[in-house]
Amino acid sequence: MVNSSYCLQNISKLIALFTVLSTLTACNTTTITSSNSIGAESPLPLVAPEEVGMDSERLNRVTTAMQDLVDQGLLAGAVTMAARDNKVMHFESVGYRDIEAQSPMTNDTLFRIYSMSKPVTGVALMALYEEGKFKLSDPVEQYIPEMKDLQVYTGTNADGSMITEAANHKMTIRELMSHTGGLSYGIFSQSPVDSAYLAAGLGAAAAAGILEPNETGKDFVRKLGQIPLKSQPGSQWEYSVSVDVQGYLVEVLSGQKFGEFLEERIFTPLNMLDTAFYVPEEKLNRFSQMYVYDQDGALTASEMFPGADYTSLPAFESGGAGLVSTATDYMHFSQMLLNGGELDGVRILAPLTVDLMHRDQTPKAMAESALDQQGTAFGLDFAVILDPVEAESYSKGEYYWGGAAGTWFWIDPVEDIVFVGMIQVAGPLTPDVRGTSRRLLYQAIMEPKGI
């Protein structure tokens, strides 16, 4: 069982510890608020909050809170977007996309969404599930022989070498999708297995979607297959590289490159015009600068991971962390899920498949639910709220995730709400934007559906 440091709000803080910073200077954080227009290409209309049972003045507190964080120097800028009943009632930008260049944050800004790539990968894999390509109970090694006969770490010999034993069962695709397969990320805890991830370039590099030049998903699973599992499959939840394995599994099952499959089956059908594994030259002027905090707590421009490059298509298309996107694109994706797999007449998944993804998938062998976060479990590439009181939330069945650079979203099937938030900052001072925005969004609901 993982401890509370694995909770989502701490992930970006942990990753940031691995960033090497040089001598840094504080930045000017004067703010600008953009208009709340939505692109004509979006199938979701922009309406007054009152049309969907919300109070405009109260809802404006979300924007005010984001502006306050900019004014405090904790954020360079932010984009927040919310929809109810398939209608956008909030879409605002504050601050700067690039402080030094004095480029204002705009609603069409592109962001590194890091682990918000994971739900997209899960949807891609489940589209193949619907075609009968696999069962969730199938062993991963049935389709990826590079991960056959994995051993499990049990201890260390006097010379420092790992003691291993055979797995008590083969890791299943269900375990792969619920972070209970025995894999790790190599960067959130210390063990010989984690050290082996780092030595193989599968730790922070994989979290950033970075491998050695010209290495592909096949190279990734080949390296991974040479490292023992950290725990017996199905025995504990640990945030891991498993979604990168899922991305390669999509390639194996579909016979297509992962990015091509995503473009054909998800991005183009959902009008996700700006979501990809890199930012083309003509869109670089909309790409947000990444920020970390210097030793004095001031924002400074820096990628989280040395070597990160978003200007060309990478050989390794990371299903766990590689995508860039916009608030509008991710809203389309999330609204599709809330609608039971369909948006604007285009169906991506069946309703029961979407429902399966946000059910608690905790293996029976585990004594507790997944995240060691009160009232919260894990489904197939989503966290799921089982008890809103324990989770300090509002609706049972809310599902969500976030990214290491601060992006976040949630889907509420009770109140029929989707919220997407985009920032680009990492480090120990990163504010709890998810918790803040959630409280301020729900206090604006005047016509609740859940009571």
From TrEMBL:
Keywords: Hydrolase, Signal. Residues 1-28 form the signal peptide. Residues 65-441 form the Beta-lactamase-related domain. It comes from the Bacteria. GO terms for molecular function: hydrolase activity. InterPro entries: Beta-lactam-related, Beta-lactam/transpept-like, Diverse_Enzym_Activities. This is Serine hydrolase.
